[in-house]
Amino acid sequence: MPRKKKLDIDNLDTLLDSDKSSSKKNNKMSQEIIDTESLSTKLEEENNDIKEKKKTVSVRTGLTYDEVKERIANNLVNVSTTKTSKTVKQIILSNIFTVFNILNIAVAIWLLTVGSFKNLTFMAVISANIIIGIIQEIRAKKTIDSLSLISAPSVSVLRNGRKEVIKPEEVVLDDIMILDAGKQICADAIVRKGSVEVNESLLTGEADAVFKKPGSILLSGSFIVSGECYAKVEHIGDDNYIQKLTSQAKKFQKPKSDILRSLNLLAKIIVVLVIVMGALLFINQFFIANHSYEESVISTAGGIIGMIPSGLFLITSISLAWGVIKLSRCNTLVNDLYSIEMLARVNVLCLDKTGTITDGSMKVRDVVEYKNPFDLSIKQIIANIQGSLKDSNPTSIALEKKFGKVKKATATKTIPFSSSRKYSACYFKDLETTFLLGAPEFILGNRYDSISKNVESYAKLGYRVIILASSKKPIVSQDDEFKDAEVVALIAIEDTIRKDAIDTIDYFKKSGVMIKVISGDNPLTVSKVAKRAGIVNADKYLSLDGLSDSEIERLAPEYTVFGRVTPAQKKLLIQVFKQNDGVVAMTGDGVNDILALKEADCSIAMANGSEAARNVSNLVLLDSNFASMPKVVSEGRRVINNIQRGAALYLTKTIFSVLLSAIVVVLAFKIPVVYPIQTIQLMLYDILITGIPSLYLAVEPNNTQIKGKFMQNVISRAAPGGLLIVANYLIIIAFRTPLNMSNEVISTLTVLMTTAVGFMILYRTFKPFNPFRILVYSMMFLFLAVAISMFSGLLEFAVLEIPHMLLLAVLILASTHVFKGLSYLFSFMVKDKRKVTFFDEIKIK
User: What is the pTM assigned to this prediction?
Assistant: First the structure.
């Protein structure tokens, strides 16, 4: 029975280190070959039982269909047991068994022991929360799963001599994979034919591309930067290197979510408060105030249930899930729910010129011949270069349309284009010449000045300029330098600006989002394109060619357009913007964007871009349409604004419940007071102030820019109402003796006063009013009137005498003014603490 091959981690780590060294120092290349051969030999020794039962897989034909069936039957398929999303069962269990639900259930059981059945009505709300949360999360999961199929990665394999495109999980052991630029490697493999440059940053954190040739190991999780190769699969499923990494969690960043962090902290604090205050309240009511066991349980239950903001997590999950569903209608796949928050907070948007401002298509506009000592025309030279290279980027497509693609004089050695090198090269043995095609500054180096005027004249027109150069030096390695390169021709290429780019950029300008353009092209060219698209300060451009990291850190904040940027420099720019208080979103579509996409607070990939870019991004624009961005950002803002407003309603209840419990504990030493709000009475606040309104807020449009920290914003909104309710309770207690009020009257006044303040909070939350908000607010008032008039007995309301009603009226009237003052005070305190960011200063200027 064939068995899965086992992975030698130590040998792979050794080889990985060797591969990285070879990308920097050519004199260590022989050592890599030795290590590769050593590892290959060991792998063969470990798997003699498999080798004996099958022939060597041909790189020309790959596996036969019978061999594929045999491996599938033996479970030698690239299926990992690691799951990337919740199952329906996990969703159901995670919604039922939350800390707050467990506390609620515990309180319900406690109430059952004393026979207080009517005070169990809060469980109806809890049950509704659970059901709604499960339904919404399952809907969001189905949406994500269906959209993921559109953006799912694929693998090209060779079977029965034919090239087939399959899913990564359909790859079997010994399959021959065909890999080219932009593809992410789905299984550990050994290069059998061709050569590629591989970025292993997702595994190692190192940005340098590693050159791989026949015999080199390709590790799952890394991606192809340039070139093409045929590689034989050596490990599948859980045997892959990426599955064996114990530090994998450190390589893939957790959601950068202020809300998630705040809610987790809040949950821990509330659990401690519930346990401590609940215990103190019961001890106080039963042992000190000498109330009956039943009264003490009911009183304590009211305090505990009031402290638990059960609906807070519901409103968060509903808002995020509904956001996923709405974004799907904008052809946007959300890979991480909490990335919606970061998108909403974005104040800096970094764009790559190609594929975002421009539509990705290019056209050759002009060709200037310099010196052509060859018998071939410029058209023939470039056509042969195109026929020898495997590049399929927009530039090569434009060149192919203009000059064609032939293989009459196929190059014996090539260097594929990469964003860090910024040129490609082909060595033609018959001509004893290496032709280079790419960025003038990178090919000519310090001799660029000789053609700089011509290049810049085209750049001022917004054209991208590349040169065709020749060298007598043959290609030996991927790191060769061609200092003798002579210019043969200059080629001007025009980018096509998206029709909707101007409107899209105008939206961000009005929304307070600063746009930065990062490109590998000539900065003057990019500047002109950015200016045509309407980007503010597009004339402030900077070339990063030759700049040190410290120079980039110092200069970057003052510029808008950045040209001649390498992948590592893109990442550095993102870091600089973040250090200057920016919340940065990055859009990209190529392998050169991977490092920056990983570094950004929110990464957005185009579906028609590289597979690797899609895999590391938080969001994927499935229609690759930059015009979708305003809808995406607007939806993110809606979600977070509504969560903040809903959270304020729930935390108000938590604040006044905690403070009321503390006050009752203290007062009970002097007077026989009980906790004033029973769980049945709390239903008024739960349904009319938090429940129905927060569900409406969760799905309402809201495009206000997010500012400040989540917890600060929520507390500043919740504290005024919570403090006011407690102050009113103390005033009611102060009139206890003069007005001869019983505990039932105090309870009734407190509940009515609390509900009245709740409507003040709701009024502030709903401002500015629109027809729907007016309808919801009016309906809540109507429900309150019905509840008081028809269910006062169920709610255990006492009959109020005229002095009691006058006190209530005075408190409500005074509270309207006090609430305004407290709200203004807390808003001012939070606003005063919120520092003005660098980007705010730039906007002011």
Answer: 0.73
